[in-house]
Description:
By secondary structure, this protein is mostly helical. It starts with a helix and ends with a helix. The chain folds into 2 domains: about 1-30, no CATH class; about 35-115, no CATH class. Helix 6 packs across helix 7 (about 100-115). It is built from 7 helices and no strands. It has helices at about 1-10, 20-30, 35-55, 60-65, 80-90, 90-100, 100-115.
Amino acid sequence: MEMRCYRRQxxxxxxxxxxxxxVRRRVENAIGPHVDLLTIVRQRKLKRYGHITRSSGxxxxxxxxxxxxxxxxxxxxKRWDDNIREWTGFExxxxxxxxxxxxxxxxxxxxxxxxx
Length: 116
């Protein structure tokens, strides 16, 4: 999605056979160094996860899946905790423990956001 927006803004058609690396280089020349969209989403999602984990509200109950009620017939292909595990490299119980300490969780977010 991001590359499609860049190509449209720069007026580059897919018929031009311009590589994504070339498009990224042109964008960087036009606007300077920037953070890609996926990194921003990853940072915000990890920060929100830490915030919710430290709280004691309804959002925490829902995220941990401890809400009473029926199950849906189909489940999502990828859940929040799947992304958290993938991005941090920790098991869910370890992420819950690390998120309790705010400074440690900030370090985890920085490390995870720096990874490609």
